[in-house]
Each structure stands twice: as C-alpha cells, then as structure tokens.
Amino acid sequence: MKNKKILYAILAVALIGAVAGYMLWNKPHQDIGAAKADIAIDAIALYNEYNTDENAANAKYLDKVVAITGKVKEAAKDSDGAVKVSLEAGSDMGVVACELSPFANHSRTDFQAGEQVTFKGKCTGLNLDVIFVECVEAKK
Amino acid sequence: MLFSWNAWKRKNKRLRLLRVEVVEGRSVRRVLFSQSGPQQSQHSTPQQSTSQQTQHSQPFKYFIMQKFIVLFAALFLMSSSAFSQKLFTRDAKIKFSSDTPMEKIEGLNKSGTCVLDAATGKMEWKVLIKGFLFEKALMQEHFNENYLESSTFPNAQFKGQISNLSEINFSQDGKYNAKASGKLTIHGVERDVNVEGTVKVSKGSVEILSNFVVKPEDYKIAIPSLVRDNIAKEIKVTVSAVLQPLKS
Fold it and tell me: What is the ipTM, given to two decimal places?
C-alpha cells in the first residue's frame, strides 16, 4: 500500500512537471496590445535622448513596453508583408522605426505620411534609427 | 588650369621628358585602378630618377610637376569611375537558423544597417541583438538573456572589404559573385572572417546576399551541455540588403 502511494505521488509530480514544461516551452509572446506601457514618450524627445546619451537611454528604455507617439514619415511593407513605420525624429540622420509585431493582430497596417500615431512596442536600441519591435498601434 | 598647363609646356623645351612622364602617369593610373599598391611605388621610383638625370637645372620644379601629374591622374580616375557613391540601407535582413533533429530555431532581424562604398569596396553591417524575433517567446528570451547576453553586447557587426572589387561593375546591371573579408563581432568577440555572396546590380540599386556559418563556440557563447544537442554546432546565417545610393 505504502509503495503504491509513493508511486502515485511520483507520477503526479512528473505529470505536473511535464505540463509546466510544455506550457513554458509554448509560452506566447507578450501581448503588447493588452500590456500597459511602462513609459510613454514622444518620438522626437526619445531620439534626442538617444543621441545625447545612448547608455542612459538604453538603461531607461530597453526591454520595456514603450508607448511612442509621433508623426509618420513613411510606412513601408516588405516582401513578406511586414510593415515598418518610420516616425519623424526631428533629424535628417535618423527616425524612430517601429516594426509592427508579427505575433499580433492589427486593426490596420496602412499608415499615411503626416498622420499622428501612437505605438506600443519594445525598444531594441540605437542603430542610426531608434528601433522598436513587436509594435502594436495603441487604441485611442 | 589647362591653359597654364599648356603655357608651361610651351615654355619648357624638354617636351620629350614630359611625354615620358605623362605615359608613366597613365601607368600609375592603371596601377591605382587595379588596386595593387606595391607596384605603384615601383613605378614611381624609376620616374623620379629619370627626372633627376635629365633635369639638372630645375629639379624642384620637376618634382612638383610630377606630383601634379600623379594628382591629376588620380583626380581623373576618381571622376571617371562612374560609381563612386556610397550605398546604404537601414532595412538589411539578418536571419539565422539552428537546425538539429531535436529542434529548429530561427531568428530574424529586419532592421540591420549596411553601408558600402562602391569605389573602395569598404563595407559595414550592424544589427541590434534585441531586434531578433523568434517564433517562440522562450527562444527569444534565452537567446537574449543566456546566449547572446544582449544587455551587455547590444549589437553585432561586420567591418570589412569586398576583396574582388575589380570583378564587380556597379554601373552595369547584372549579378556578380562577390567575396568579402573583414572582422565579424558577435557577443563582444571579434574574429577575422571570409565570406562569399552575390552582388546584384539593377537600376542603380545594389542587392547583396550572403550565406555563411557561425560557430557559437568561436564567439564564446556558452551553451549548457544539457541542451547542447538542441543547438546546431554550425549556425547558418543569411544576410541580405538592398542598398540605395546615399543622398547627400
């Protein structure tokens, strides 16, 4: 009897472990659309912060969900249908580039130059442009 | 400038010597074009001695003239190469895949930068590590936190040179095989690499494509032995970029 109880206990632990492992393995990407933004900032101000002190800006923005507001400079769709929206950064040298998330559904993927938009996304740093990935347009 | 050049020619009685120099100036130009540095100095040595032997009265003036001819040749070369522009993109795609029987892992970054100087063949690529996206969130997390340590080493880059530049005509549409060598930096480790690829020129834009292999161990990327079989010993990397002339 005692042996059986131990066996069941071991089986139960193994099952829980397997389920937990499977769920962790298939953990979905963060739902940026539903997530609350950690920081909200204007595209021009953000770009200036990055060009003043990149390290300080990285410490502040990397790995955070950032709500970024700006004027669309251009929107481009690549051959895979992925959309990248460039926001005016008040400079000829760079923009704030927002890659729309491939993991989320988007209410629209067409953006017109000149319009004001807010995206929520993850900041990846400065590579001429300040680049955001996994972006979702914030609901107004 | 041309006028004074002719005036100088008329004044000078040693036209024969000048001709020699012009011919040699051309050969210098050809040497510059084929980019074989050492030969250039071989050429300039006999040139100098010629002028010293034949022109005793005004050696300094002759020395200056020689410099002018070389300079003139260099200027002419620069203006005659139709494609001395810099080419650039901020939409370079960097993809890598690790393929093992256990699992397939793919990461893709669509916001790499690439700049190429078509005149010299100098080339630079840079990509932010945190911008690589994976199908599974867990892979992305492990890639950033455990393997590439993207908070410490935020980017990867290649700085190098197209080594067979003379075989690529940037002003004529076509597909060319290309070789590049330079330094690849990943995970803070810089290594010399040689890669092969293609350069496709069409209507002023230049598309660069290359496949190469990167070994995680070479770049001090530590993989726990428990999952070592899940990650390929050789990671396949594909880079592609459509470059446009840089507006200045």
Answer: 0.88
